[in-house]
């Protein structure tokens, strides 16, 4: 499991609403994804950018992102020299009717909120270890991520990250 996957699972519509399957451990891309954490993140304002973050070493995480309400631009950047996608970035615009995105270990992730009151659910296959968390400055031009909003709202932590350097 070392490439980013779009995960489409069935949903069933009837006159009561929609039943969506969010996770199926039998799905080929998910059978080796063992959930350790499920995080629900509500973001009030459009224009908030969370990331880019990654955890290192034994705390590295694969993450499964799903938009529950609203819209985001999810971006990734490969930081793992051993992956053929090293230094490649990707970007997905996602709303609640879109696929989930599975991002394996070895990628920094971040997302820009494109609608007020956006809800994101994401699962991780590792525990959160603050001392193992690292980040990359959101507008590091070397990442070649074309963010859809130029002056995002950032946490103090996300303002403090540096550019990515290949050491
Ligand atoms: C990620 C995480 C955070 N926290 C605590 C730490 C802080 O007190 C609070 C907010 O954390 P943070 O500011 O890192 O949250 P975001 O800025 O939304 O970042 C998250 O969203 C971006 C897109 C990511 O890819 C990261 O996985 C994740 O860090 O939750 C926990 O207790 N457990 C966790 O797994």
Automatic annotation (TrEMBL):
This is dTDP-4-dehydrorhamnose 3,5-epimerase. One of its GO terms (molecular function) is dTDP-4-dehydrorhamnose 3,5-epimerase activity. It comes from Marivirga arenosa. It comes from the Bacteria. The active site is at residues 53, 122. InterPro entries: RmlC-like, RmlC-like_jellyroll, RmlC_Cupin_sf. Its EC number is 5.1.3.13. GO terms for cellular component: cytosol. It catalyses: dTDP-4-dehydro-6-deoxy-alpha-D-glucose = dTDP-4-dehydro-beta-L-rhamnose. Catalyzes the epimerization of the C3' and C5'positions of dTDP-6-deoxy-D-xylo-4-hexulose, forming dTDP-6-deoxy-L-lyxo-4-hexulose. The record marks 128 as: Participates in a stacking interaction with the thymidine ring of dTDP-4-oxo-6-deoxyglucose. It is an enzyme of class 5 (isomerase). One of its GO terms (biological process) is dTDP-rhamnose biosynthetic process.
């Amino acid at each position: 499991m070392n490439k980013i996957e779009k995960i489409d699972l069935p949903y069933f519509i009837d006159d009561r609403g929609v039943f969506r399957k969010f996770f199926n451990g039998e799905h080929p891309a998910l059978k080796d994804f063992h959930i350790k954490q499920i995080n629900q993140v509500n973001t009030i304002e459009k224009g908030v950018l969370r990331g880019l973050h990654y955890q290192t070493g034994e705390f590295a995480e694969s993450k499964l992102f799903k938009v529950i309400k609203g819209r985001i631009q999810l971006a990734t950047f490969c930081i793992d020299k051993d992956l053929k996608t090293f230094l490649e970035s990707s970007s997905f615009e996602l709303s609640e009717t879109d696929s989930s995105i599975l991002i394996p270990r070895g990628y920094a992730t971040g997302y820009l909120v494109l609608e007020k009151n956006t809800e994101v659910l994401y699962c991780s296959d590792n525990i959160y270890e603050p001392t193992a968390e690292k980040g990359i400055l959101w507008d590091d031009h070397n990442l070649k991520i074309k963010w859809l909003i130029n002056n995002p709202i950032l946490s103090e932590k996300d303002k403090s990250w540096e550019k990515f350097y290949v050491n």
